Amino acid sequence: MTHDVLVQRAVRWLRGTMGCNVVLAEPVTALPVVPDAIGWRSGWSILVECKTSRGDFFADRRKPHLVQPDHGPGQERWYLTPPGLVQPEEVPEGWGLAEVRGSRVYRVKPPPPERRWSPKYDPTDRTRRIPERDRHDLIIVLSMLRRHHIGIEWWQDQARFKPLGAS
Q1: For 10, phi and psi rounded to 5 degrees?
Q2: Alpha-carbon dihedral angle through residues 142, 41, 63, 1, given to the nearest 10 degrees
Q3: N or C: more exposed end of the chain, with fewer CB within 10 A?
Q4: 136: DSSP letter
Q5: DSSP-derived 3-state class of residue 161
């Protein structure tokens, strides 16, 4: 199973089973990380990282959002893999594991329930910053909105904007 196939499965899973109204595949932004798929449902973001090899899975541990879990996009975070590639006990704290088996996605290990806002965050206190996860989600959404605003074509079936220079 290729990475591209897993990304498209993640998009369908986010749209269908996870009930996301807005789903993006591999959105390139100013962030140092490019999620494989991310979707939003009622203001809640669900990030999916697709892994086709154990080496790629273990290389992820150096990414900023795993070194500092409050950084990077995604209120809820999942790994999506072929069956048996990763064991549930190998999944980093705060992440879930799902597997593609045939035509379905199965939740092997759900992520722990998360709070929408950091316990220290008070939305009425203008001196505090928005939590990093929410700020990173906002950067992705604003980047995609800008592309729409300047007229870049949206490919609904692929959940991505047409690359510049593509015909």
Answers
A1: -65, -40
A2: -110
A3: C
A4: H
A5: strand
Tokens read off for 63: 């990414």
| Cα–Cα separations (whole angstroms), residue 165 to 23, 28, 161 | 23, 16, 12
Question: Token pair of 84, please?
Answer: 């048996």
Over the stretch 133-147, which tens digit does the pLDDT of each residue have?
Answer: 676 677 777 777 777
Contact indicator for 103, 8 with CB cutoff of 8 Å: no
CA distance 12 to 16: 6
Supply the pTM of this predicted model.
Answer: 0.76
* Helix, strand counts (H, E) of the chain: 4, 8
In the sheet with 95-101, reading across from the earlier edge strand, the strands are 22-25, 37-41, 44-50, 76-81, 95-101, 104-109
Q: Where are the beta strands (DSSP E) in 5-141?
A: 22-25, 37-41, 44-50, 76-81, 95-101, 104-109
Encoded amino acid at 123, one letter:
P
Helix (H) or strand (E) holding 61: none
The token pair at 85 is: 């590639």
Name the stretches of the chain with pLDDT < 70: 64-70, 114-133, 135-136, 149, 164-165, 167
